[in-house]
Amino acid sequence: MEPTVCPWCQSEIVWDEEIGPEETCPHCANELKGYRTLNIALEGEDAEADQEELDEDYEATEEEAVDLQRIWGSENESLSSLRTVDKYGEDHDLFAFEETVEAILDEQDEVPECLHCREYMLHAGTQHVSGEGFQPVNAALIRGPILQPPYELNVYVCPGCFHVQYNLAENDRLRMIKNFIHKKE
């Protein structure tokens, strides 16, 4: 009688002749008859053939194709289509523009990412916010306003899509943290 070896843990299984062969390994409790192998093609030819089979298996109806294009956009569309600056490429040297942008970014301490097109944003300056036109919200937990004017905002502009974003300036961030800590105590 030939010994049985578990394909999972490589243990030799000795089974009782009266009971018959084991269905599960007594060492690792895995199913002995259900051992499955997954073959993955690493060469280009097999992968291309598999992709062709997948493409042939499913063809979207015209209505589905319209819905997919509406949701995902065209196959040729990419993040570069979000870059507004690209439309100025015919009249301007965008290579020089990109070099200047990179040099400015290298000098910045903080480099946020644009929420719209994911380009790095340029720090354009600061904006002072006085009490005029700003109504602070009082938070019950800290017994006062979350942000008290006057404060300053950092203004960032995206060199790709020209969206503008704001965040609280460093000194006012620290002031807000200290206010939260002291008012909660």
Keyword list:
alpha+beta, 4 helices, 7 strands, elongated
Strand-helix topology:
Layout: E1 4-5, E2 12-13, H1 44-57, H2 62-72, H3 94-107, E3 122-129, E4 138-139, E5 144-145, E6 151-157, E7 164-168, H4 170-184
Antiparallel strand pairs: 1-2, 3-6, 4-5, 6-7
The secondary-structure class comes to: alpha+beta
Strand order of the largest sheet: 3-6-7
Average pLDDT across residues?
A: 78
Question: Termini distance?
Answer: 78 Å
**Low-pLDDT runs:** 76-80
- Cα radius of gyration in angstroms: 32 Å
Major sheet, described briefly?
3 strands, antiparallel
Name the helix and strand elements from N-terminus to C-terminus, one letter apiece.
EEHHHEEEEEH
Estimated helix fraction: 25-40%
The proportion of residues in beta strands is: 15-25%
Distinct helical segment count: 4
Shape: elongated
Total strands: 7
